């Protein structure tokens, strides 16, 4: 059985993690966002804002973590696995921050393709910032547009999840897979 890899993406503060948690409550297999782990690991090493101080290193760690998730999902005994963000997210953010990166990033996105992409639109009413989320809502809007265009660049047709209550958003996704 081929396990389908399904990405839940969107700009900062759009509800991705909440949906992932709700999917887990329903018994779905999910992989969590790796960026928070990378940020916390860097802080333990004395680097307060790795993505600002060493953006290429930060992005490389994200790419590696998401590739590990992609490969691990292949071995899951399930019809599908949900992932909180995908490989193209790394490139979208690097493009947003106007950061140069090696061709390996493009090659990785081309060679490792997901089966379905759900994108959550910016939603000011639920947006909050925290210790790992530094962007303003206006920046989140711009990042969202980069996410849409980057996924489309790699041949995906992202399905936009409507702005509904968490249970309804989760059901929308489950009904579309």
UniProtKB/TrEMBL annotation:
Extract the SUPFAM superfamilies matched here. Answer: P-loop containing nucleoside triphosphate hydrolases
Recite the UniProt keywords alphabetically.
ATP-binding, Nucleotide-binding
Write down the Gene3D superfamilies for this protein, in alphabetical order. Answer: P-loop containing nucleotide triphosphate hydrolases
InterPro entries, A to Z: NadR/Ttd14_AAA_dom (IPR038727), P-loop_NTPase (IPR027417)
| UniProt domain NadR/Ttd14 AAA: residue ranges | 5-169
Q: Name one Pfam family in it.
A: AAA_28
GO MF, one term, reads: ATP binding
Superkingdom of the source? Bacteria
Any coiled-coil ranges, and where? none
- In its UniProt entry, what is this protein called? ATP-binding protein
User: What species was this sequence derived from?
Assistant: Christiangramia crocea
